[in-house]
Write the structure tokens for this entry.
Amino acid sequence: MHNLSPLPQYLIKRYHGWKATSYTENRAWFRRLATEGQRPRAMVISCCDSRVHVTSIFGADSGEFFIHRNIANLVPAYAPDGLQHGTSAAVEYAVAALKVAHLIVVGHTNCGGVAGCHAMCSGAAPELEEKTSFVGRWMDILRPGYERVKDLPEADQVPALEREAVLVSLENLMTFPFVRAAVEAGETSLHGIVHDITEGTLVQAEDGGKRWVTV
Amino acid sequence: MHNLSPLPQYLIKRYHGWKATSYTENRAWFRRLATEGQRPRAMVISCCDSRVHVTSIFGADSGEFFIHRNIANLVPAYAPDGLQHGTSAAVEYAVAALKVAHLIVVGHTNCGGVAGCHAMCSGAAPELEEKTSFVGRWMDILRPGYERVKDLPEADQVPALEREAVLVSLENLMTFPFVRAAVEAGETSLHGIVHDITEGTLVQAEDGGKRWVTV
Amino acid sequence: MHNLSPLPQYLIKRYHGWKATSYTENRAWFRRLATEGQRPRAMVISCCDSRVHVTSIFGADSGEFFIHRNIANLVPAYAPDGLQHGTSAAVEYAVAALKVAHLIVVGHTNCGGVAGCHAMCSGAAPELEEKTSFVGRWMDILRPGYERVKDLPEADQVPALEREAVLVSLENLMTFPFVRAAVEAGETSLHGIVHDITEGTLVQAEDGGKRWVTV
Amino acid sequence: MHNLSPLPQYLIKRYHGWKATSYTENRAWFRRLATEGQRPRAMVISCCDSRVHVTSIFGADSGEFFIHRNIANLVPAYAPDGLQHGTSAAVEYAVAALKVAHLIVVGHTNCGGVAGCHAMCSGAAPELEEKTSFVGRWMDILRPGYERVKDLPEADQVPALEREAVLVSLENLMTFPFVRAAVEAGETSLHGIVHDITEGTLVQAEDGGKRWVTV
């Protein structure tokens, strides 16, 4: 393994600032979290997008949220085929090992992944249909969502598909036997929200996703 | 899709607090980011663990980091097999579409995923060997790392494996043709660090991972 | 006085969120409360336990409840001996100065203080018998309650003692001449409840504590 | 024990509202907290005053804060005399059993207890000097604070004494051997703040209480 570079100085400086302030002020708590293990109350599944940090929106402090982030906050359907499923592994760990009380899927507006999915499904981005496109194959998860929005007026399709990215993921979560069991036993609950990165607003799915209501 | 629950009140309150302070103070910048698109300087690949938020450690502000988080901050090897690879999709998007300048893999101590991998590979957790274990199959990625640490003294193996989780991922990143090309063209650089969640310290890999040096 | 630390950042952020929302929305009322003084309708005596916030259970708004919280929601008997009695001072202030209409003692299940008292009285925790144990000496208040439950079946003793912690406190409240006078004049009333923190239920004492009825 | 009254209907209604909403939405978490025990990050010592609920100011959710509330947020000095010390018991439980990472003393403006202490010490309230006055004897804890403010201009004395109520308590906390040991070992930290209930502002003690800085 060659080709390793030292961390850029601006990050080293920020890290030292954090170490001298936040870490020092919270050392006792951080040590307890390390010794006794984490006990996060919720798992959050959100997008990798650099403009959507739920740690900010929800004021997350150390130990509160178990956070999985992938392109377009997607969860694939349950498929115990012995292959590598990073998202499914994260869900399994959160529900079976950590026993989180909430599973929160956080979508957002202006999502590049969702826009790519729309372009692909509507024929505008054939390169994403190629077998070798990782983004294309990942966005295949959202194809059922596209089917539900494709007859809407043109301008409404992408925003609707951003909400579908949340709903499809929630539906897929319920295909995992251990998630379904935990939800039905009242041990965990499902939540779907979409964050508008322009206006800072938040809507949440109600009535099984038939309505989206401003929080 | 039934079984949807409203967001817990404590999160709604925190969100409203964020909206009235951070969002309001940064509205102009957030709107520019929304209109013009994100342009993150770095991609960070880190663990879902609730005790490791790089947004804290590096004081990440909106728009700075494209963050993928999965169990044990792992990257699988390049496999353009047409199947769903969430991590590979995130890497592809970051490098090919966003052209990030840095790819930073952030491991951490006390990692539940790494501990599980060690237990599995050393025979102590046969349930993780089952085909249906998503965590087990995901941790298969780290098996080559286990081979390199298994002859160390018992107490050193898990800490060494936590570092291997970073090195294996960096090695796998270089199997992606577009990553290799970008690295070799000097368009992006690779960085490997491990965060000690007890002491708040940070070490980074040098000499291709042969040495780990305190930052 | 050295050894003072700045408030952790996560609390500062939450405070700023509260200031920008709840405070701002209620500024006029908060200012009136400040200028004209508090006029709480009830005094609540409850446990310090982090899982029992009567402000949540009863939706308490600013100005409504005068709240004293101590280990196991105990009130000692009247003892005008010139020594420091924090609980008695709080009761005196609530009844004599604030003239609250209700005195509500709120017990709860899974109470660490009550469990400690049971262990101490049954001989399982001799360290709590030591003169220097503040928790032990404080739980002495509940010894008469232990006498009334010690012959119950083993599994029933601690739950019964949690209810005794409420009843003993109510009995002790009536040993304060000013409380007795206010109760007998119909100026204040006594209430005893126990909150089940697992099921969220509430029972209240009736018939002088002979029966506990779900609210 | 006669003289028990049923809970007022308005509280029963609010409780049922809480049960049907907040409890139901958070049942899984509440059950986990009940089963696994509380692990609060901080102990807060604040006043009984109905206008100062730290659960609001800091957006406290279930499980986060171990809260002791007494008149004027006072902590007496360490006195292992075998007598009943409710505040000392709460501190002992928080530090020795729960191992909280922060001890936060929260004072406030317009404090009736502090005003009473000032009146007593300045000779304006001889009734508080009587042996039988529980409030008077409790406020004796703050006499050393009065000595430090009595030569200030008249109008500054009570506000300064409100801050002394925090500082004296912090000083007294350090007289407890187990608190001092925990602070010196970096296992817990001390914080002093005063909340202005009129303006909603917050100041914190710095430089060992020599300066108070707006948060």
Remarks:
- The interface with chain C takes residues 21-22, 25-26, 59, 61 of chain A (CB under 8 Å).
- Residues 16 and 133 of chain A are 39 Å apart (CA to CA).
- The longest helix of chain A spans residues 154-173.
- The radius of gyration of chain A is 19 Å.
